[in-house]
Amino acid sequence: MRGMESPEAAIERRNFERMDADQLAAHQLERLNNLLATILPANRFYADKLRDVSVPLESLDQLAQLPYTLKAELAGGPNQSLANNHTWPRNAYVRWHQTSGTRGRPMVVMDTEEDWLWCVDAWQYVLDAAEVTKDDVCFLAFSFGPFIGFWFGFDAAAWRNCMVVPGGGMGTLSRIEMLRTSGATCLFCTPSYALHLAEVAAQHNIDVAALDVRCLILAGEPGASVPAIRQRLESTFAARVVDHSGATEVGPWGYGRSDGRGLHVIESEFIAEFFSVETGLPAAEGDLAELVLTTLGRHGAPVIRYRTGDLVRPTWQHDGENRFVLLEGGVLGRVDDMMIIRGVNIYPSSIEQILRSFPEVVEYRMTVFKEQEMDRLLIEVEDRLDNPQRLEEELRLRLSLKVAVQSVPLGSLPRYEAKGKRFVDQRGTVDASS
């Protein structure tokens, strides 16, 4: 890692956040043209995709003329694990990571030293939001395997001269003990695992609110911007919750607003576009939309107009000094996770928000399947009250939909360290209900 975080870098980030729309567009256009000049024609993937595009672009509006990039294109053929969009020969790269594989076969993405440091720079926005200083002790409850997870966060905190404590290769109880003995003030993990840490601590009569943890920096899945989950975690740990979002193939692109309303896109380093789920046209204020991102500093493995599959509600008209676009409620779900239950469009995050509003619900799992031509949904819950009827009633009231809820024994559903897998999609099977 290079030298410690400088005061000038922090000032520059704040200045970017406060740019008006015209200033930001000019900055993004300059960075985009620099990216294109750097990667073309060496990057064979984009040299082919952009062969009919005249560069440099004269206006950011011309970005809309460029084709989308899809994950299926990056992944390549069935016998290929390395992403297709690498620019340089393999010996130019120093980092090797792969996608989590929760949606298909894992895909390998490599980074040059310069690209890795660009991602670490972007992560400083997350640490700014959490008000992390060199006096903090950062504990990362993360496996440190090939999934990129909190690797960026580890280096970003070390660069800020924090004490950094790796929590890989440990059981949950051991991690709780290390949180105590290290005096950790910041906990980095997924929302699922933070809930599990609290559950295991309670089983052993340990009060996590009595630890030194003042802030939870959470990523990997929706949750930290879901009010019911956020409130439960902040109450349980007596600590702030800061959301973050990123992806192996994109980098760290979003960080939480201090009041928990959602995520800001790091628009100094990414161009964000939004396309309405309903119309397919550019989204208006507050529309449910798919997020499309262009990286501006990852030259070794760039993505241009990448369809992330993340569902968001963008708003540009928000209060505060930070003018980066705000995604109300954070990432709301995935395009391919949408269910149509008796004509009602439902996303897993909507159900999670309702279930997590019941403190007696310890864990849950949703299974969607086809019954003839209709989507059907079954929800299994570990419920200390063993009263699924009240959950069915709340779902009916808030979603105008009757959903089957079934109690299962406490401790019988899986727990997760990385991304939670509480949504099981069996719609590709034949009549999975039978």
Report on this model:
It contains eleven helices and 21 strands. 28% of the residues lie in helices and 24% in strands. Residues 430-434 have low confidence and may be disordered. A nine-stranded mixed beta sheet has the order 4-3-5-6-7-8-9-14-13. It has a four-stranded antiparallel beta sheet with strand order 10-11-12-15, with no helix packed on it. The termini are far apart. 44% of the residues are buried. The longest helix has 19 residues, at 21-39. It is of the alpha/beta class and 434 residues long.
Concise synopsis of the structure shown:
The chain is built from eleven helices and 21 strands. The chain has helices at residues 7-17, 21-39, 44-49, 71-75, 113-129, 151-159, 172-182, 191-203, 227-237, 348-355, 388-399, and strands at residues 95-98, 108-111, 137-140, 163-166, 186-189, 215-218, 240-247, 251-256, 262-265, 270-276, 289-295, 306-312, 314-315, 326-328, 333-334, 339-341, 344-346, 361-371, 374-383, 404-407, 423-426.
Question: What helical percentage do the residues reach?
Answer: 25-40%
Total DSSP helices: 11
Largest beta sheet: strand ordering: 4-3-5-6-7-8-9-14-13
**What percent strand?**
15-25%
Work out the oligomeric state of the chains in this entry.
Answer: single chain
Please report the distance between the alpha carbons of the first and last residues: 56 Å
Structural class, from helix and strand content? alpha/beta
Characterize the overall form. Answer: globular
